[in-house]
Design goal:
43% of the residues lie in helices and 14% in strands. By secondary structure, the protein is α/β, with parallel strands linked by helices. The chain has a single domain, classed as Rossmann fold, CATH 3.40.50. The chain is globular, with a radius of gyration of 18 Å. 1,4-dihydronicotinamide adenine dinucleotide binds next to helix 1, strand 2 and helix 6.
């Protein structure tokens, strides 16, 4: 490593963690974890574009996020729209430096009741769309020799969590994709990582837990920190992974889970 490549510990703190001058795209950024990822990236200096399927919540989200935030209505499952989405965004906002694949759906059903259509719907949103959007962004990042891609995975990729077979399969697929893409893109200075949230208080989690106090207590019991996470806990981890402070980190899945994955 040359002297120029070294990060001087005092002179460059906190700028090494700063996202100033960077543009980030966050799918599903109008609510839940995605919204707080947007908040944290903005606080760290980035320009942020959020996407989602419905205009009204996106408009409201951008109004509260402030002037460095913008939105585009986009359904990630419309695969043939993703290339033009990215081309249009880069024409309007400049290069996308950071892609956060956050949009996702869950479905809780015993495995024997899951239809092929159910399974396909979850895989299509959580895995196929993630690949298609990543490919559209990465093509440009690779050409520019710069970029950071972050997938929002799940502890469901690691545990035998009952009644989420399609969701767990989709997130396991995302984890495999991270490792392959990190291997392929590293020489182009494009990093690819995942964050695996534990149990984070959002409407998705409340839906999964509200009718199932036994599941909720089980999750809490094995979380050493003793409470559920907040969306901003994922937001700050995203800032770190997107920043130059994480420049030597690629191909990982980082648990942000209050110790849930190591709890007994
Ligand atoms: P949420 O339901 O509050 O947010 C999901 C977002 O994705 C929403 O804004 C929704 O509109 C958007 N979305 C869904 N389908 C879309 C589509 N086809 N096109 C565009 N946007 C779409 O859920 P939450 O909890 O914020 O989840 C965010 C991510 O975090 C998901 O990938 C989820 O799997 C993951 N996750 C959440 C955990 C939790 O405890 N809340 C735990 C582990 C992972």
């Amino acid at each position: 490593m040359t002297k120029e490549q070294q990060i001087h510990p005092t002179r460059q703190f906190p700028s090494t963690f700063s996202l100033e001058g960077k543009t980030a795209l966050i799918t599903g950024g109008g609510s839940g974890i995605g919204f707080d990822i947007a908040r944290c990236l903005l606080a760290s200096g980035a320009q942020v574009i959020i996407t989602g399927r419905r205009e009204e919540p996106l408009k409201e989200a951008v109004a509260s996020l402030g002037e460095r935030a913008a939105y585009r209505v986009n359904d990630v499952t419309q695969l043939d729209m993703l290339e033009s989405l990215i081309a249009g965004l880069e024409a309007d906002f400049g290069p996308i430096d950071i892609l956060i694949n956050n949009a996702g759906i869950n479905m809780k059903k015993p495995a024997l009741d899951v239809t092929d259509e159910d399974f396909q719907r979850i895989i299509h949103t959580n895995l196929q769309s993630v690949f298609a959007l990543t490919r559209a962004c990465a093509r440009r990042m690779v050409a520019r020799n710069s970029g950071s891609i972050i997938m929002i995975s799940s502890m469901a990729a690691y545990y035998g969590l009952d009644r989420v077979v399609a969701y767990a399969a989709s997130k396991s697929g995302v984890e495999g994709m991270v490792r392959v893409l990190a291997s392929e893109f590293s020489r182009f200075n494009v990093r690819v990582n995942a964050i695996a949230p534990g149990f984070i208080e959002t409407s998705m989690m409340r839906t999964a837990m509200s009718s199932d106090p036994e599941r909720m207590n089980k999750a809490l019991d094995r979380t050493p920190i003793g409470y559920f996470g907040q969306p901003e806990d994922i937001g700050w981890a995203t800032v770190f992974l997107a920043s130059d402070a994480a420049r030597y980190i690629t191909g990982i899945s980082m648990p942000v889970d209050g110790g849930n994955s190591i709890g007994f």
